[in-house]
Design goal:
Layout: H1 3-9, H2 27-33, E1 45-46, E2 53-54, E3 65-66, E4 69-70
Antiparallel strand pairs: 1-2, 3-4
Length: about 80
């Protein structure tokens, strides 16, 4: 019998399992990792046309202007 025939009949190990951690992480290590996950408020800028608060570098939702010209047609809500 050839070596490769013997290897072909040998049962294989399951390769589908993922490795698991051997020990749990401490609370300090977990909270240190999560220190930068907090949410921050968006910065707001004033629209030079209608003086409403808007996100910077975006067209104004109220008047539709961006950089001094109208880029979005804002219809009158009825």
């Amino acid at each position: 019998m050839l070596d490769f025939e013997r290897l072909a009949r040998r049962p294989r190990k399951k390769d589908s399992t993922m490795p698991n951690p051997k020990r749990r992480h401490s609370q300090k290590r977990t909270s240190t990792r999560r220190a930068h996950d907090s949410l921050k408020a968006h910065s707001l800028a004033e629209c030079p046309n209608c003086h409403e608060k808007k996100m910077p570098h975006r067209a104004c939702v109220k008047c539709g202007y961006y950089k001094g010209r109208e880029v979005v047609d804002v219809g009158q809500a009825s």
